[in-house]
Amino acid sequence: MTTSSPTQVLTFVLGEETYGVDILRVQEIRGWTAVTKIPHAPPHVLGVLNLRGSIIPVVDLRMRFDLATANYDAVTVIVVLSVICKGTRRNFGVVVDGVSDVMDVDAAQVKPAPDLGAPAATDHVLGLLPMAQRMVVLLDIDKLIGIDATIEQMDSIDATPAASAA
């Protein structure tokens, strides 16, 4: 949210909280689909999804944020996002409770993330957007997905003979 012109943000919910990501990073929004589990993946990486021939790692944001688990049901959504990591662009699916709407965000309205004492606690937060009844947490999806072993573990999956033969 560094530009002075309005930016569009896709908002979604996890539990009682609302989060937002840059709409230009959203590749697709799809209903919940079972994924193929990958042994030894981090707990928040549910597995992979075959999306029109591309293998897409799927991350449960509830688990990533240490929130209470929820059942995957008819309103559960997988948002496929374009993530830049290690200088390359990859698609990841993130599981959310539901998609809210697309908002125009003026950078002047965005408040900085508070200092919580641990830099890693807010590294992935671009800022906070105060709304009438809620606060929207604007996420830096590159830092959120790329700050742990997720990318390295998914790279090893891509390097398997079955994945490279496809």
Notes on the structure:
- The chain is of the alpha+beta class.
- The chain has a single domain, classed as CheA-289, Domain 4 (OB fold (Dihydrolipoamide Acetyltransferase, E2P)).
- It contains five helices and ten strands; from the N terminus they run βββββαβββαββααα.
- It has helices spanning 61-64, 119-122, 141-146, 150-158, 161-165, and strands at residues 7-14, 17-22, 26-31, 45-51, 54-60, 77-85, 88-96, 98-105, 125-130, 135-139.
- The strands form two sheets. It has a five-stranded mixed sheet with strand order 8-1-2-10-9, with no helix packed on it.
- Strand 6 (77-85) and strand 7 (88-96) form a beta hairpin.
- The longest helix has 9 residues, at 150-158.
- The model is unreliable at 148-154 and 156-166 (pLDDT under 50).
